[in-house]
Automatic annotation (TrEMBL):
Residues 1-189 form the Calcineurin-like phosphoesterase domain. InterPro entries: Calcineurin-like_PHP, CNP_phosphodiesterase-III, Metallo-depent_PP-like. This is DNA repair exonuclease. GO terms for molecular function: exonuclease activity; metal ion binding. PANTHER family: CYCLIC NUCLEOTIDE PHOSPHODIESTERASE CBUA0032-RELATED, PHOSPHOHYDROLASE. Belongs to the cyclic nucleotide phosphodiesterase class-III family. The keyword Manganese does not apply.
Length: 264
C-alpha cells in the first residue's frame, strides 16, 4: 500500500515546474491515497482554493484533506471572526476532521487550527479523546495514521515554539491507543522522530513523520520542496521515504528511507 503525504503546498505561491514534477511522480508511482496536511493555500483566497481543488480533482486516487493556519483568512478580519473556514469548506466540504477507514488502513484527520491563534496550533481535550477512542477501535491489520498540520516534536530548538499546544497530553494518549504514524507539516522541515506513550521506553512506540513544503517557493533554508511516500507491507512493516525536488533533474528523487517498526 502506497500513501503520499503532502503538506504546505501554499497554492498562490506554487511553482509550475514543481507541480509538473509532482504530477509526473504520481502518474509513475500510482499511490492509493493522498493525504494533504494543511496550508493548502497561501492566503485562504477563493482563487487559491480553486487551484488546490483543481489539483486534487486531477489526482488518480482519493485525497483526505485537513486545514492549516494559512487556510484561515489573515487580513479579512470579518471572515476570520465569523466565517474562518468559509472558503475552505467551499472547496473541500464541511468536514474539517475527516476519517477514512479501510481493511488495512485507518486515517483520522485532526483540525489543529483555531481562528484565535495566528500561527500556532492547538488540540482540545475533546479532540484528544475523540481520536484516542477511534484509534482504540482499530484492528491489528490496520495502519493507524493521525493527520494534522502542526508538529508535535521538534528537531531543532528554534521549532519548539511551533509545537502543537496540547501535544503533551495528545501524543501519549494516542500512542497508547494504537497510533502508528502522526503526519504533520507547518515548519517546512522534513524529519522522522519516535513518539512514546505514558510508559516511555517500556511501552508502545509510534512515529511522527514531518513533511516539507510540497510546491511553494517558500522553502526553508537549503531544504528543497519535498513530500513523504509511506509504504505499508503488512502489520509491523512500514517504510517512510522522503522525496526531494531536484532542480537539475527537474524531478523528485528519493533522498531518505526510514524503516519504521510498528508496535503490534
Amino acid at each position: 500500500m502506497l500513501i503520499l503525504h503532502l503538506s504546505d503546498p501554499h497554492f498562490g505561491t506554487e511553482q509550475s515546474h514543481v507541480v509538473s514534477a509532482l504530477r509526473q511522480f504520481i502518474t509513475q508511482h500510482q499511490p492509493e491515497l493522498v493525504l494533504l496536511g494543511g496550508d493548502i493555500t497561501q492566503r485562504a483566497r477563493r482563487s487559491q482554493f480553486s487551484a488546490a481543488r483543481a489539483f486534487v480533482d486531477d489526482l488518480p486516487c482519493p485525497a483526505l484533506v485537513v486545514p492549516g493556519n494559512h487556510d484561515i483568512p489573515l487580513f479579512n478580519l470579518f471572515a476570520r471572526l465569523f466565517n474562518p473556514y468559509g472558503n475552505y469548506r467551499r472547496a473541500f466540504g464541511d468536514g474539517l476532521e475527516p476519517v477514512l477507514e479501510r481493511e488495512r488502513l485507518l486515517v483520522v484527520g485532526v483540525n489543529s487550527t483555531t481562528p484565535g491563534r495566528h500561527k500556532n496550533g492547538e488540540v482540545s481535550a475533546a479532540q484528544i479523546e475523540r481520536v484516542r477512542a477511534r484509534l482504540a477501535r482499530a484492528t491489528p491489520q490496520q495502519l493507524r495514521i493521525v493527520l494534522l498540520h502542526h508538529p508535535v516534536r521538534a528537531l531543532q530548538e528554534t521549532d519548539v515554539a511551533n509545537l502543537l499546544v496540547g501535544h503533551e497530553q495528545a501524543v501519549p494518549a494516542w500512542v497508547d491507543a494504537g497510533l502508528d504514524l502522526l503526519l504533520a507539516g507547518h515548519i517546512h522541515l522534513p524529519y522522522v522522530l519516535p513518539l512514546r506513550g505514558r510508559q516511555g521506553d517500556t511501552g508502545r512506540r509510534g512515529w511522527t513523520v514531518q513533511a516539507g513544503t510540497a510546491l511553494s517557493y517558500r522553502v526553508r533554508g537549503n531544504v528543497p520542496n519535498s513530500f513523504n511516500l509511506i509504504r505499508y507491507r503488512q502489520p509491523g512493516e512500514c517504510v517512510a521515504e522522503r522525496w526531494d525536488y531536484s532542480l537539475l533533474a527537474r524531478a523528485f528523487l528519493c533522498e531518505e528511507r526510514n524503516e519504521l517498526p510498528l508496535s503490534r
